[in-house]
Structures are given as C-alpha cells and as structure tokens.
Amino acid sequence: MTSFEPFRIDIPSAAIDDLNARLAATRWPDELPGVEWSYGIPTGYVRELADYWRTGFDWRTREAALNRFPQFVTEIDGQRMHFLHVRSAQPDALPLVLVHGWPFQDFTEVIGPLTDPVAHGGLAEDAYHLVIPTLPGFGFSGPTKRPGEAATERSAELIAKLMAALGYTRYGAQGGDAGSFIVPQLGRIDAEHLAGIHLNDPITIPAWGDDGSAYSASDQEKLAALRDWSSKETSGYAGIHSTRPQTLAPAVSDSPAGLLAWVLDVVNTFSDPAEPTPDAAIDRDMLLTNIATLWFTNTIGSSMRLYKESGHWGVELPDSGVPTGVAVFPGNNTIRGVAEKQNTVVHWSEFERGGHFAAMETPDLLTADLRDFFRKLR
What we know:
The protein is an alpha/beta fold. It contains 17 helices and nine strands. A nine-stranded mixed beta sheet has the order 1-2-3-5-4-6-7-8-9, sandwiched between helices. The radius of gyration is 20 Å and the shape is globular. The two termini are 29 Å apart. The model has no long low-confidence stretch (mean pLDDT 94).
C-alpha cells in the first residue's frame, strides 16, 4: 500500500545565506553595447534581477505562501514524488491532475479558482479536487537516480499510479510544455480512468515522413518553421539539454546567476511575445520562487534529463481516444493538424494574450477554458 507523508518546505537559513553570498560574489561577463537580446539574455537585465533576488526577494514569505497548500511526498516504484493535494469543499468535485513542464509551471494562481469556484466568480459544479505532482528530477521530488526516470513516458506511468493510490477512479488531466506529452501519454495508458485531457500550447511534432500537405496554410507555415527550428537561436537550449545535459549542469548548479540567465532566457523565448521581458510577462517574485526552488533542491541538472531521456520526438503518437481540449496562446507553435491527428480534439480555443506559461501568465483564461471544457464531460 502506498504511503503519503505530509511535507512542509523549510529551507535552512544557511542555504539562503549561501545563495545570497554567491549572488553577491558573481563575476559578471563583458557585454557588447546595443545588442540587446540578439546575443542572448542581456547581462544588465540578469544583473538587475540577481540584485533584486539578493536584496528584495523574500524567500520566507513565498515559502509560507506555498506551505498553505497541503503537500505530500511518496515513493512510487522507487522514485520519490512530491505533490500538492488540494481537495475542494464540494464533495462531487472532479479530480484533476495538473502537470508542469520545463523549467516549471506554477499553478498556485489557479488553485483557488479551481477548488473554490464560487469564491472566484464561478459555479459550484465547476469545482475540482487538485493533484499537482512535481515531476521526477525537479524540485522537491529530488533528482532522478536511474537513467530513463526523467522521461515523459515514465512520468505518465508514475502519475497514473499516484492517482490510483489516491483512490481516484475517474479524473481529468491538464498539461503544457512537457506536460503536453505526459498528459496524452497518460490517456494512452490509463484511458479507462480519464474523463478528459486539456492541453495548453501543446508541442506538436509530426512523425517522420509527414509532409503536412493536408494541413491548413497556417499549419504549413508552422510546420516549415518547426523544420527550420534547429537552425534558429531559440532551439539552442533544447539541443544542449537533449545531448549534453551533464556538461551544462555544473555551471547552472554552481552559479545562481548562471541559473537565472539560462532559465529566464528560455522563459523569454516562449512567454507572451507582446511583453519585453520575462518579469513583464510573469510576476518576478513568482519567477524567482520557482528558480530558487530549483536552486535550493539542486535539481536544475537533473531536470534537463527530461530532454535526453524522452522518446516522443518525431515518432508516431497514437490517439488515446480520450476527449481533448486545446488552448493556444500568442506565439504558440501548435500545429492543429498534428494535434488533431494525435488526439481526439473536441474543444479548441485561441486567445489574444498570454503565452506558453498559461497558469502563470493568464491564470484567468486558463481557468475559464478548463471550466468550459470539462463542464461537458463531468
């Protein structure tokens, strides 16, 4: 029988002092004038945020806020898993698992509206019991211990076992980024228990040999951009993660400024294109809370193994048959023809604001779309 141990975040003061000392002692690189983001994330921008992280950010306040939610750790097949389990006061609430991606997807802003919809302008019948797991290799789940444990396919297996151990025989699932691979895979292996699947900005990779000739003009443009992606600067981080994650790991595990620069450059690439910087798209304290979690748990290196170990790139992904809703936000690269080939899409929404990190950038839109989609499936 699976046991669940209550968990509370309590970072030692010595770890906070060490972080601040490292930030203060950062040796900053030279920077060319006037190049802005064309050479990567501007050092001046990183330096300003690093200074705020050291002198203005209050970890203890954020830690206390996170500890308001019931958290647990368990072991499934030898892998430690940390998760939030926030039950609604509505007894007939639909269980819903929320699955993050890389480097994070903070769901704290949607917890209240989803578990207590009446208090947030919704209807009682839209309530959810939430399970929010931390993927293997990330944060308080700790680093993975065996090759393959960080793969998206493995995460789907562990989440299915977690939901069964919690006693949920019918539930929904939501995910974006890596979660948009994990959640459909969850449907393939646990379809009999899935009420529905919701994806935001799903990553759609056509199988080898798919020329896209049957797709819309818009889809064909996105397909051409995807095929040219490897030659673009935006793909550099994924190339490193999928081939040499251990080579990068010491740099971002030893230097909080390096970690900050690496993560925020990726966030900037995929957040709302209308916003000039990551902390314009997402609250900076929220960003730093998630980056600090990777730092304090020393899991940035193991988190990148997800790219190396997952086997979903360019393979034929069968449709699970589970009803699927898709929400796309500005700047998305989602190819609808591929999404519909790989999933039973019954709901499609397009929004004019927000970005890849929907729960952090536009929690109101994500909440409304989840309510609209799952209302038909309860």
